[in-house]
Amino acid sequence: MFERYNKVQQAVLETTLHLIIDKELQATSMSLIAKNSGVSTGNIYHYFSSKEDIINELYKAIVLFNGEFVTRDMNPADSVQARFRKAWRNVIELGKRYPNGFRFIEQYSFSPYIYDDSKLEAYKGGWCGPLAKLYEEAIGQGLFIELEPRMMVQMHYGAIVYLLKGHLQQYMELTDDAAEQTILACWNAVSKEKGWNA
Question: Which residues, as ranges, make up the DNA-binding region of this protein (predicted)?
Fold first, then answer.
Protein backbone atom coordinates (compact mmCIF):
# COMPACT_ATOMS: atom_id res chain seq x y z
CA MET A 1 0.00 0.00 0.00
CA PHE A 2 2.92 2.35 0.71
CA GLU A 3 5.45 0.98 -1.79
CA ARG A 4 6.05 4.38 -3.42
CA TYR A 5 7.52 5.75 -0.17
CA ASN A 6 10.98 5.23 1.31
CA LYS A 7 11.46 2.84 4.25
CA VAL A 8 11.21 5.53 6.94
CA GLN A 9 8.01 6.98 5.47
CA GLN A 10 6.55 3.50 5.04
CA ALA A 11 7.24 2.66 8.68
CA VAL A 12 5.63 5.90 9.86
CA LEU A 13 2.55 5.54 7.65
CA GLU A 14 2.00 1.84 8.41
CA THR A 15 2.44 2.41 12.15
CA THR A 16 0.13 5.42 12.15
CA LEU A 17 -2.57 3.46 10.32
CA HIS A 18 -2.41 0.59 12.83
CA LEU A 19 -2.41 2.95 15.81
CA ILE A 20 -5.38 4.93 14.54
CA ILE A 21 -7.40 1.77 13.94
CA ASP A 22 -6.46 0.39 17.39
CA LYS A 23 -6.48 3.55 19.50
CA GLU A 24 -8.34 6.27 17.53
CA LEU A 25 -6.83 9.41 16.08
CA GLN A 26 -6.78 11.56 19.22
CA ALA A 27 -4.84 8.92 21.16
CA THR A 28 -2.21 8.59 18.43
CA SER A 29 0.62 10.97 19.35
CA MET A 30 3.90 11.66 17.57
CA SER A 31 5.80 10.05 20.43
CA LEU A 32 3.67 6.90 20.15
CA ILE A 33 4.22 6.79 16.38
CA ALA A 34 7.99 7.14 16.95
CA LYS A 35 8.03 4.45 19.64
CA ASN A 36 6.02 1.91 17.67
CA SER A 37 7.63 2.57 14.28
CA GLY A 38 11.22 2.51 15.53
CA VAL A 39 11.80 5.87 13.81
CA SER A 40 13.11 8.70 15.94
CA THR A 41 10.91 11.75 16.40
CA GLY A 42 13.59 13.89 14.73
CA ASN A 43 13.62 11.62 11.69
CA ILE A 44 9.83 11.70 11.48
CA TYR A 45 9.92 15.51 11.45
CA HIS A 46 12.42 15.35 8.59
CA TYR A 47 9.64 13.91 6.40
CA PHE A 48 6.45 15.13 8.08
CA SER A 49 5.89 18.56 9.61
CA SER A 50 3.16 17.42 12.04
CA LYS A 51 0.77 14.65 12.97
CA GLU A 52 -1.79 16.28 10.67
CA ASP A 53 0.74 16.08 7.84
CA ILE A 54 1.14 12.33 8.46
CA ILE A 55 -2.64 11.84 8.56
CA ASN A 56 -3.10 13.69 5.26
CA GLU A 57 -0.30 11.77 3.57
CA LEU A 58 -1.82 8.55 4.89
CA TYR A 59 -5.21 9.55 3.49
CA LYS A 60 -3.79 10.42 0.06
CA ALA A 61 -1.68 7.25 -0.07
CA ILE A 62 -4.62 4.98 0.76
CA VAL A 63 -6.98 6.69 -1.68
CA LEU A 64 -4.41 6.54 -4.48
CA PHE A 65 -3.74 2.86 -3.76
CA ASN A 66 -7.49 2.19 -3.67
CA GLY A 67 -7.95 3.94 -7.00
CA GLU A 68 -5.27 1.81 -8.64
CA PHE A 69 -6.70 -1.36 -7.09
CA VAL A 70 -10.32 -0.73 -8.09
CA THR A 71 -9.57 0.35 -11.67
CA ARG A 72 -6.98 -2.37 -12.40
CA ASP A 73 -7.72 -4.64 -15.35
CA MET A 74 -10.48 -2.30 -16.54
CA ASN A 75 -10.52 -2.66 -20.31
CA PRO A 76 -12.19 0.26 -22.14
CA ALA A 77 -13.15 -2.19 -24.90
CA ASP A 78 -15.34 -4.16 -22.46
CA SER A 79 -19.01 -3.32 -22.10
CA VAL A 80 -20.19 -0.83 -19.49
CA GLN A 81 -21.83 -3.71 -17.64
CA ALA A 82 -18.62 -5.78 -17.55
CA ARG A 83 -16.61 -2.81 -16.25
CA PHE A 84 -19.32 -1.99 -13.70
CA ARG A 85 -19.23 -5.53 -12.33
CA LYS A 86 -15.42 -5.61 -12.34
CA ALA A 87 -15.07 -2.27 -10.53
CA TRP A 88 -17.51 -3.13 -7.73
CA ARG A 89 -16.02 -6.62 -7.36
CA ASN A 90 -12.65 -4.90 -6.94
CA VAL A 91 -14.09 -2.55 -4.29
CA ILE A 92 -15.32 -5.56 -2.31
CA GLU A 93 -12.02 -7.39 -2.70
CA LEU A 94 -10.15 -4.25 -1.62
CA GLY A 95 -12.19 -3.95 1.58
CA LYS A 96 -11.65 -7.62 2.42
CA ARG A 97 -7.90 -7.65 1.69
CA TYR A 98 -7.06 -4.26 3.22
CA PRO A 99 -9.54 -3.80 6.09
CA ASN A 100 -7.48 -1.18 7.96
CA GLY A 101 -7.29 1.05 4.90
CA PHE A 102 -11.03 0.60 4.37
CA ARG A 103 -11.80 1.47 8.00
CA PHE A 104 -9.53 4.52 7.93
CA ILE A 105 -11.14 5.96 4.79
CA GLU A 106 -14.63 5.27 6.12
CA GLN A 107 -13.92 6.87 9.48
CA TYR A 108 -11.86 9.89 8.48
CA SER A 109 -12.93 10.97 4.97
CA PHE A 110 -14.97 13.82 6.47
CA SER A 111 -12.64 14.55 9.36
CA PRO A 112 -11.44 18.14 9.85
CA TYR A 113 -7.95 16.61 10.08
CA ILE A 114 -8.10 15.99 6.33
CA TYR A 115 -7.33 19.17 4.39
CA ASP A 116 -9.67 20.20 1.56
CA ASP A 117 -6.85 20.04 -1.00
CA SER A 118 -6.07 16.48 0.16
CA LYS A 119 -9.72 15.52 -0.39
CA LEU A 120 -9.71 17.08 -3.86
CA GLU A 121 -6.44 15.39 -4.80
CA ALA A 122 -7.78 12.10 -3.51
CA TYR A 123 -10.99 12.42 -5.51
CA LYS A 124 -9.06 13.00 -8.72
CA GLY A 125 -6.57 10.21 -8.01
CA GLY A 126 -8.97 7.72 -6.46
CA TRP A 127 -11.61 5.52 -8.02
CA CYS A 128 -14.76 7.65 -7.57
CA GLY A 129 -13.83 9.93 -10.47
CA PRO A 130 -13.21 7.07 -12.96
CA LEU A 131 -16.42 5.32 -11.87
CA ALA A 132 -18.40 8.54 -12.30
CA LYS A 133 -17.10 8.67 -15.90
CA LEU A 134 -18.24 5.07 -16.41
CA TYR A 135 -21.70 5.98 -15.12
CA GLU A 136 -21.72 9.03 -17.40
CA GLU A 137 -20.91 6.71 -20.31
CA ALA A 138 -23.80 4.45 -19.25
CA ILE A 139 -26.17 7.43 -19.26
CA GLY A 140 -24.87 8.46 -22.70
CA GLN A 141 -25.58 4.95 -24.02
CA GLY A 142 -29.11 5.06 -22.61
CA LEU A 143 -28.37 2.29 -20.10
CA PHE A 144 -28.81 4.31 -16.89
CA ILE A 145 -31.46 6.74 -15.76
CA GLU A 146 -30.35 10.35 -15.84
CA LEU A 147 -29.06 11.03 -12.35
CA GLU A 148 -25.86 12.84 -11.43
CA PRO A 149 -23.13 10.19 -11.94
CA ARG A 150 -21.17 10.96 -8.77
CA MET A 151 -24.37 10.74 -6.74
CA MET A 152 -25.11 7.29 -8.18
CA VAL A 153 -21.55 6.12 -7.42
CA GLN A 154 -21.93 7.24 -3.80
CA MET A 155 -25.36 5.58 -3.51
CA HIS A 156 -23.88 2.29 -4.66
CA TYR A 157 -20.82 2.70 -2.48
CA GLY A 158 -23.13 3.03 0.52
CA ALA A 159 -24.62 -0.39 -0.22
CA ILE A 160 -21.17 -1.97 -0.65
CA VAL A 161 -19.91 -0.31 2.55
CA TYR A 162 -22.80 -1.80 4.53
CA LEU A 163 -21.94 -5.24 3.16
CA LEU A 164 -18.23 -4.87 3.96
CA LYS A 165 -18.86 -3.54 7.46
CA GLY A 166 -21.11 -6.47 8.23
CA HIS A 167 -18.43 -8.83 6.95
CA LEU A 168 -15.56 -7.17 8.85
CA GLN A 169 -17.59 -7.11 12.08
CA GLN A 170 -18.51 -10.76 11.50
CA TYR A 171 -22.25 -10.06 11.45
CA MET A 172 -22.65 -11.66 8.04
CA GLU A 173 -20.74 -13.84 5.65
CA LEU A 174 -19.73 -12.04 2.48
CA THR A 175 -19.96 -14.84 -0.05
CA ASP A 176 -19.35 -14.48 -3.78
CA ASP A 177 -23.09 -14.92 -4.32
CA ALA A 178 -23.94 -12.16 -1.81
CA ALA A 179 -21.42 -9.85 -3.49
CA GLU A 180 -22.83 -10.62 -6.95
CA GLN A 181 -26.42 -10.09 -5.82
CA THR A 182 -25.53 -6.76 -4.20
CA ILE A 183 -23.75 -5.55 -7.34
CA LEU A 184 -26.73 -6.66 -9.45
CA ALA A 185 -29.09 -4.77 -7.10
CA CYS A 186 -26.94 -1.64 -7.57
CA TRP A 187 -27.11 -2.07 -11.35
CA ASN A 188 -30.88 -2.60 -11.27
CA ALA A 189 -31.36 0.51 -9.11
CA VAL A 190 -30.21 2.81 -11.93
CA SER A 191 -30.47 0.69 -15.07
CA LYS A 192 -33.26 1.09 -17.61
CA GLU A 193 -33.10 -2.65 -18.28
CA LYS A 194 -32.92 -4.96 -15.27
CA GLY A 195 -30.62 -7.94 -14.90
CA TRP A 196 -27.30 -8.94 -16.42
CA ASN A 197 -26.90 -9.53 -20.11
CA ALA A 198 -25.91 -13.07 -20.99
Answer: 29-48
